[in-house]
Amino acid sequence: RKEFVDLYVNYVFNESVRKPFEDFMQGFLRGCPARKWKMFLPVELQIVLQGHTKFDWRLLEKNVTYRQYKKLDRTIRNFWTVFHKLPEERKKMFLAFLSGSDRIPGYGPEHFAFCIADPQVENPDELCPSANTCSRILFLPR
Q1: What's the pLDDT band for 47 if we cut at 50, 70, 90?
Q2: Looking at the DSSP assignment, which residues form a beta bridge with residue 131?
Q3: 38, 63, 67, 118: least surrounded by Cβ within 10 Å?
Q4: What is annotated as the active site (predicted)?
Q5: Are 37 and 45 in contact (CB under 8 A)?
Q6: Given phi > 0 = left and psi -120 to 50 = alpha, else beta, which region is 77?
Q7: Percent over 90 (pLDDT), the chain
Q8: pLDDT digits (tens, 9 = 90+) for 54-107
Q9: CATH 3.30.2410.10 residue ranges for the chain
Q10: Cα–Cα distance measured from residue 116 to residue 90, given in angstroms and rounded to the nearest whole number
C-alpha cells in the first residue's frame, strides 16, 4: 500500500504536471531570466511579485496628499474616522478600488501614497466617490 500511495502521489504532483510546468517555466524564464531572480530570498521574491499583505493603515493615512482639501477639513476627518472603523477586509477592498490591487506594491508601504481630490462639482450630493487607479487618486465629493 505504501508503495502504491508513493507512486500515486508522485504521479499526481510530479509526472502528470511535468509538461505543462516545463512549458510555463520556459515562458516565464524567457520574460524573467532566472539569474536576475536569484538575488532574492523566496519571501522577498514573493513580495516583489505579489506585493505586501501586511498593512499599516496609519502610515497610509500619513502618506496621503490632498487637492482642494486640507488635512483638517471636515470631509477628510470624517473619511478617516470611517475608514479606520472598517474591518480589515473592507480596507483591502478600498485599496483595490483605489489602486486596482488589494496589496501594496513591493517597493514598500512607506513609499505607497495616494491623493484625495475634490472633484469640484456643482452638487456634490449627486456624485459618488470615484478613483483613478492608474494615478491612485480618490475623487471624494464634499
Answers
A1: confident
A2: 138
A3: 38
A4: 134 (glycyl thioester intermediate)
A5: yes
A6: alpha
A7: 52
A8: 788 898 899 899 999 999 999 999 999 999 999 999 999 999 999 888 888 777
A9: 57-139
A10: 18
Q: Distance between CA atoms of 30 and 52, rounded to whole angstroms?
A: 26
State the pairing for strand pair 130-132/137-139. Answer: antiparallel
Q: In Å, what is the CA distance from 107 to each residue of 45, 50, 52, 77, 115?
A: 12, 11, 9, 28, 18
Enter the C-alpha cell of residue 69.
482639501
Residue 134 annotated in active site: yes
| Active-site choice (32, 115, 128, 134) | 134
Q: Which residue has the cell 521574491?
A: 45
pLDDT in tens, 8-36: 999 999 999 999 999 998 888 888 777 77
CATH number belonging to domain 57-139: 3.30.2410.10
Residue 116 pLDDT grade (very low, low, confident, very high; cuts 50, 70, 90): very high
Which grid coordinates belong to 52? 505586501
